[in-house]
Amino acid sequence: MSRPNRSRNKLLKPSQAIHALHPEVPKNEVIHALRERVKELTALHSTVCVLQDDRLSTREALDRIVRLIPPAWQYPEITAGRIIVGDCEARNPGFRRTRWLQACDFRITREVTGRIEVYYLKKMPKEAEGPFLAEERNLINSLADMLRTYFARKLASRALLDAHNDLERRVRERTAELEELNAALKAEVKERELRQKEILSYQEKLRGLSSELILTEERERREIATNLHDIIGQTLAMAKMKAGALRSACPAREAAAELRNLSGFIDEAILATRTLTFQLASPILYELGLESALERLAEDTRRRHGLAVAFSGEGGRVPLPTETSVLIFKAVRELLMNAVKHSKASGVKVRVRRAGGKIAVTVRDNGRGFNAAAASVYDGDKGGFGLFSIREKVSHLGGEFTLSSRPGSGTLAVITAPLAKEKR
Asked: Who's near 370: CB < 8 A, 6+ residues apart?
C-alpha cells in the first residue's frame, strides 16, 4: 500500500488557492478582492443581527445599519451613506450629496417606499458602475431587499397588533353594551314579573268579587222569587179559589161566564208568576239540586223557544257547594240561549256525569258551529253571562271550561268542577 502524498493534502490559504487557480492575477489583487468580499459579508451579517433585534425602533435600526455602509465599500474614508424609509431618514456624519452615487429604491407597501444611497465624496478610478464595484451593486441590492422584507414584516406585525387591539377594544365595548342591555333586560323582566304578579292578584280578586257578586245577586233574586211565590202567587191562588166559589154560588149564566174569564186571567197570572219566579231563581235548584233544575231548564227551553233539549243525568242530588251549583246552572242557561240565538240548532243534549271527585256537564248542539279561536263571535249577547266570564268563574272554582267547534259541525261545551270546592 502506497503512502498518501502529504504535500497534496496540505491546506492552502484562500489567497494561495485563488492564485493557484488564476496564476495570471497578481497576488496583491487577489488579497484585495478577498478583503472586499469579507467587508461585504461582514456588512450583511451585521445587518441581519440588527434586523433581528425587535427591541429597536425604526430610527435606531436605520442608524445602526447606515453606519455599516462606509466600511463595506471599497473606499471607506470617502464614503457616506443615507437610508430613507417613509418619513424616517438616517445618514452618516459628514454626509453630502455628490455626483458619484450608487442607489437602490425599494417599495414596502403601496404608500411606503425606501431608498439606500451611497456617495463617494471625491472622484475615484472607474470601475463596473462608475467608481463602484459590481459586488457593491449586489451588496446595496441585498441590503435594500433585507430592509424591504424587514419593514414589510414590521408593518404587517403592527397592523396585526392594531387589528388585535381594535378587536379587543370593540369586544370590550360590545361586552359593556351587552352587560348594560342584560342588566336593563333583567330589570325589565323583574318589573314585568312584579306587574304579572299584581295582575294575577287583581284577577284573583276580581274572580272572587265576581263570584261573590253572583251569590249576592242570586240571593236577591231568590228573595224576590220567594216574595213572588209566597205573596203574589198565594194571593192569586186565593183569588182563584174565591172566584171558583162565587161561580158555584152564582146561578146567573152571564155572571158565571165573567167569573170563568176572571179565573182564566188569574191562571195566566199564576203561570207568569211561576215562570218569572223560575227565571229569577229556580227554587228547584235549592230544593232538589242541580240535576232537577237543569231538567226543568231543558223543559222550559223546549216550551218557550221550541228547541228540542234532551237532558240526561245520573239521578239523585249531586252534593255541590251552592256557588258551584249556581254557576253551572247559569252557564248552562247561557249556552242554551247561545244555541237559540246564534247557532240555529234544532237540538241540544245536556248531560251530567260524576267521576274522580268532579262533576262534568256537557252541552252539545247540532248548530252551524263557529271558529273556536274567535269565541267572542259566538258570544253575541253582550249582556249575557259570556263565554269568557264562564271560563274565568269556573277557573276560580278550581274547574275548567272547554269549548270545541268548527263551522258546520256544531258546538261542544264541557264544564268540570270539583264536587267539593278546593281551598285556595
From this structure: 342, 343, 377, 378, 405, 406, 407, 411
Give dist(CA 47, CA 45) in Å, integer: 5
Q: Are strands 79-85 and 88-91 parallel, antiparallel or unpaired?
A: antiparallel
Interior/surface letters 79-103, b for 16+ CB within 10 angstroms, e for the rest? bbbbbbbeeeebbbeeeeeeebebe
As a whole number of angstroms, the distance between CA 403 and CA 378 comes to 11
> pLDDT for 332-385, tens place per residue?
988 888 888 888 888 999 999 988 888 899 999 998 888 766 554 344 444 345
Domains of the chain: 14-157 (no CATH), 286-424 (3.30.565.10)
pLDDT in tens, 48-72: 999 998 898 989 999 999 999 999 9
Sheet holding 308-312, edge to edge: 308-312, 347-355, 358-365, 411-418, 400-405
Q: How far apart are the C-alpha atoms of 358 and 400, rounded to whole Å?
A: 11
For residue 78, give the DSSP letter.
G
Residues 135/121, Cβ–Cβ less than 8 Å: no
Nine-digit cell string for 359: 262533576
